[in-house]
Amino acid sequence: MSYNFHNFFLLLVGALAFSSLQVKSNPLEFNYEGKSQDFPSSYLNINKIESDYQKTYKKLFQSLSVPELDHCKIEVQFKILNGYWGSVETEKSIQSKTINDCSYEIKIDEQLIDKMEGQLVLIHELVHIIRHHFNPLEERWLDEGLAQLIETEYIALWPYDKQTQLFSQEKLFLSSHDEDYSPKGRGYSSSYFFLKYMYNHFGGLHLVKKLLTSQKTGWSNIQESLKQLSEQGKLQIPKIFFSKEMIWTHFSFAIFFNDSAKADYGLFLLDYKFKNDTEKKSPLINGEKRITSNTEMETFYLPLNKVNKQMLAEIDFNKFSVYLLNSSSSFNIVKADSSMKLIRALNQFEYAVLVKKL
Ligand SMILES: [Zn+2]
Questions:
Q1: What CATH number is given to the structural domain containing 128?
Q2: Using N-to-C axis directions, what is the helix angle for 204-213 and 218-231, rounded to 10°?
Q3: 3-state class of 300 per DSSP?
Q4: Is residue 114 domain-resident?
């Protein structure tokens, strides 16, 4: 009988309020004509915007070096939006769409009209438009991850709101369900941190450009993009690390060590030292567990001082790759391939990390 880890782990379903865009910086003063009184409903042909919004658009496309969408009709409206800051609607007839046939409608909450956050929402929605332009069927986790990553890199500020989300979730997952991206959805922080990890370690802007313009979607997009970067000499990482399982395993370790309350970082991690500026204790410090998962892959972290030998003996090594971690001794990671080895290591390691095999 193999132990059912799903039952062992009580998932804490943390209600994540859609984070406020807390940008800790002075709001920008915009110069566009008319200002609030000419809004909230304004049709903006992207060629004709004479404001900082136009500059935002230009700067974004230049920094990404993706083809500009000057020929597209991009309508921006400022409206009262209930509970979310922005949205984008792609034209309906996706199937019949050609590369020159593009029309999009961006809605931004009118509260943000003369604030820097309005620019960020614009960037976020423009990234969706770029992605949808090349493939409107992109999976939601990748689509949202890209939009959040670029928005965050653009302002070069650490996203405290996403860190707080990460901290409050025990389960990180890549989801394509719409409800996970509702105003209170839990999908955003996982998507963001996964893309941030990929960006930091697998080619930076080169990777972003590939992902944005690819004809493929989801994991196929990621793998094809990595393959191309490698062939073009832009990525020096051995191809063995490009498998879904490898990427997920390393990302899981990164999340583990970057637990926002532990405030650690290391070699293949997120490369940012989290500020432990919250009173809360880490779920891991409390001896609980954290899970990362997506549809087929799941990672379980077992604090070894909380589990018994019986439980370890029941781990199915055909189903899981098992790693032993000791965060205090230079991130020592050892692969265990039998229950015997695992039980013997009980006193030398703090955590067992189980990565479900594909
Ligand atoms: Zn979005």
A1: 3.40.390
A2: 130
A3: strand
A4: yes
Query: Which of 246, 138, 140, 147 has the alpha carbon at shortest distance from 201?
Result: 246
Look at residue 26 and tell me whether its pLDDT is greater than 50. no
- For tokens 């990525």, what's the residue? 235
CA 280–ligand 1 middle distance (angstroms): 28
Q: Is residue 62 part of a domain?
A: yes
Q: Say how many domains are in the chain.
A: 1
What DSSP string runs through 29-74? PP--SSGGGG-SS----TTT--SHHHHHHHHHHHHHT----TTSEE
Cα–Cα distance measured from residue 202 to residue 234, given in angstroms and rounded to the nearest whole number: 9
Single-letter amino acid, residue 100: N
For residue 113, the CA-to-ligand 1 centroid distance in Å is 18
pTM for the full model?
0.73
> For residues 83 and 86, what is the distance between their CA atoms, to the nearest angstrom?
9
Could you identify the residue written with the tokens 């077992």? 302
Residue 86: domain span: 28-138+146-154
- Ligand 1 centre distance from Cα of residue 344 (Å): 47
pLDDT: which is higher, 156 or 127: 127
Weakest mean pLDDT among 162-176, 304-318, 344-358 = 162-176
Is 170 domain-assigned? Answer: no
87 Cα to the center of ligand 1, angstroms? 7
Tell me how far apart the alpha carbons of residues 110 and 179 are, in angstroms, rounded to a whole number.
24
Looking at the domain assignment, is residue 203 inside a domain? no
CA of residue 292 to ligand 1 center, whole Å:
21
**145 CA distance to ligand 1 centroid (A)?**
8
Q: How far apart are CA 50 and CA 56, in angstroms?
A: 11
- pLDDT tens digits along 295-307: 667 777 777 877 7
